[in-house]
Specification:
The complex is a heterotrimer. By secondary structure, chain B is mostly helical. Chain B has eleven helices and four strands, in the order ααααβββααααβααα. Chain B has one domain. In chain B, the strands form two sheets. Chain B has a two-stranded antiparallel sheet with strand order 1-4. Chain B has a two-stranded antiparallel ribbon with strand order 2-3. In chain B, a hairpin with a 2-residue loop joins strand 2 and strand 3. In chain C, the strands form two sheets. Chain C has a six-stranded mixed β-sheet with strand order 6-7-8-3-9-10, sandwiched between helices. Chain C folds into two domains: about 180 residues, 3-Layer(aba) Sandwich (Rossmann fold), CATH 3.40.50; about 70 residues, no CATH class. Chain C is globular and about 60 Å long. Chain C contains twelve helices and ten strands. The chains are: A mainly alpha, B mainly alpha, C alpha/beta.
Amino acid sequence: MKFLKRLLVAVVIGLVLYALNLAMSKEGLFGIGVPLYQVDLWKLAGINVILAVSLNLINGFTGQFSIGHVGFMAVGAYSSTFMTVYYTQGLEQSLAGAVGAGVAAAIVFLLVIIVGAIAAAIAGLIVGIPTLRLRGDYLAIATLGFAEIIRIVIVNTNRIGAATGFRGAVDPWPGRVTIPAYTNFLWIGIFDVVTIVIIYNIVNSDTGRALISIREDELAAQAMGVNTTRYKVTAFVISAALAGVAGALYGHWRLPHPADFTFVRSFEIIIMIVLGGMGSITGAVLGALVITFLPELLRQLPGEVYNYRLVIYAALLILIMITRPQGMLGGREIGFNWLKRAQRRPEGDTAVGADKGVPIAERDAPTADHAKEVENR
Amino acid sequence: MDTFVQQLINGLNIGAIYALIALGYTMVYGILRLINFAHGDIYMVGAFAGYGLAYFIAANLGLAGASWGALLIVLVGAMITAALVGMAIERFAYRPVRKYSRMTTLITAIGVSLLIENLFVARYGGMGRGFPQLLNDRTYQLFGNAAISKSQILIFVVSIALMLLLQWIIYKTRVGTAMRAVSFNLNSSKLMGINTDAIITFTFALGSALAAAAGVLTAQYSPTIDPLMGITTGLKAFVAAVLGGIGNIPGAVLGGLLIGVAETMVVGYGANVGIASTYRDAVAFAILILVLLLRPSGLLGSTVQEKV
Amino acid sequence: MSGSTEQNASRRTQAESILTEAAHTARSQEVTDTSGAVLRTDKCTIRFGGLIAVNSLDMAVREGEIYGLIGPNGAGKTTVFNLLTGVYEPTEGEIYFQGKRIDSLRPHQIARRGVSRTFQNIRLFPGMTVLENVLTACHIHSRQSLADAVFRTPRFERDEREQREFCLELLKIFGLERFQNEGGTSLPYGNQRRLEIVRALATRPKLLLLDEPAAGMNPAEQEDLIELIRLVRDRFGLTILLVEHNMKVVMGICERIQVLDYGKPIALGLPEEIRNNPKVIEAYLGD
């Protein structure tokens, strides 16, 4: 029953995404189409959502301070595009004969996305294990350092395009093999949903409580039996894997270029989650949308002011931090009921004993008097 | 041997610049626990201020061409300008968020950095521009093929002088004593009657002035400046500060020199061991990570154990 | 919280039996006998630089007893706790729990062995509700894997349900179930201390370490606390080691007391012996 419900929700979301994707294609959906530059913006927004929601697991929920998220995205982008350029073309052709070109492309793309995720997860493990004995700002700068090293290694590797960006293989086969543009809004949307569901399910579980306890009080968490090192690494690996997915989607849409993966991009992702409210999934989504669309909105500025749009953007950012430091949602979640209904909270959520079966709203709320009474008992 | 000496001179030279900037990072961190990501941009602002001043005095004071007087005016003027900018940033951007979480202050710092960069790009364009030469630069042969240029000597002399001055301010003056007190404990210092706000402002002024000096000095050595010149240099200087133990002043100098030398050594010798000179920019980070793994709080930083 | 033993025995809950099972009791009568010791330290010493914070401490806590560790300010009591829970590693000496060495284990490993603690300056998880605070402490006994959580498997649902029921029962025993959805740190002080004890119990310990549980409490709250600690021991059959400053509380509940001064153990005995021990009186009043 529960399974059927979940399936239903998944199908509905899938259909909506499919319709959106059609609307964003050249042909449009029943004549309704989205202008091309807006399509690109929505794609970027979708990829940013994956990045922000996944980084939130480390920075927002686990309370660690990573500013090297873009490094994992780069690993995902380059490893997956490397696969499609050098290895999967043949596979796709042979599959196409059996199942048709569209399905073959989908299978291959899913495969290389997984490759990107695994590569990024391994990078997360390699970065996570040694650096997690560092604290606070030291951890931050070490993650930034790793991300920069990844980028510089890319710049120095000719097989993936080095400093000029990866556009495909130069000459392994007759004719140039380019990176296939598999990514469309449907893929991005699906992985947005997957990312959000994964992070939501993790956060609302034993693992999530262990992670949050590390954020709240690392020492007390250890005293409660939480292996803090292991859980920090877990958070790093999961977060990195999802950033790798974002990278794979990005790489099969725009050709990966080292300039896309500088630490400035990491900062941008942090800005998204801080703006949305640390430790809030919906906040991260909101932050990603705002940070993607705000610069575009500022493009509408007239004449002379237009030149200063990025200055205004930066000034707005500072202003928001001064006036609303907790971010837009301040760690709260909004509008998650549709997800909750799909999975229903465990029954234990409604209190046992005398209160059993009484809806929460009808239970008498504890009052100040009551608190005093209990304390004096 | 010649090459080694040459690389060492060049490395210490770049290192001195990193050190001057790193001092600003480390002082601000020591006092506020704030990573002032806009500090690299102050270095750029200093260079631009020097650029403006050089043209101004050339046009108005007739001090065109190379002269020690012009150089002094440009250097001091740039330092004062940057100090004022640093104080303004502290007052209007950092002070309001000082009590908020680390993440919030970090974003504010990034915001300030973006603001300065984009302002300069919008105003002056993103292209590099030549910095007027205020020094009749020439090269002195040391021995063999090793050489040192006048501008390099200038960097050494001025940076050492400024570091000694800083040392004197911090350890021998009242305001320096107050700075040290605030870096130990801001709240207790406040209770002891120290005007902590003034001290913090002063720290920003001091750090910004040093960064501006680094900007003008660099521009004498490699005379092209652009609005984004502070990003990479600033980042490496920050790495230098962390490497030495952030909050630790001798550590910042040590970290700066170390990274400068390591970079030039990679350029000079990396090819022999299979490291392309293009890995130059990665060296700083590689050293940083290695050092942090062995000494999690930097070379000269002290470990503070959390009280239970 | 007026729970007499007989009354409680009649309504044993599931949470109770889980806890009791975790800490079965066996007691020894002799004051200095170390044979039945569940926790034992052997010449345990720790130095911070030149300072010897704990000096050659021998301690033997028996199963099921309430053991008090007292001493003047700065005597090294909390340091002993930090040694026992793996926050610090002793410079010299050994620590045994249930016959096995634990002195080089990390804090979470010691917690898994069945040693749980509270903190002198309450360390609840500020961003969590009362229930979440306790649920987090069930971590050791959680049977769900990360994959279970991601795919919301039946095992995940069952595990979550069981943990919640256990935690709510535990909260109920301590009169905190009404606050389950409130922020843990928004409770009044006395209830925060109480919640910290519940959280420690949720790890299903065999040995409970209480670090100055009476700190900051008024006399009425102290009375309450004495009752509470007895209740915990009697109902769950735990061994309790407590560090305390407050003589009334210590004398009121401890069965044996050890006194530390400048990191050195100076006396060990029954409460009345300690009360009249000249060395102890000197340590507290002299100097």
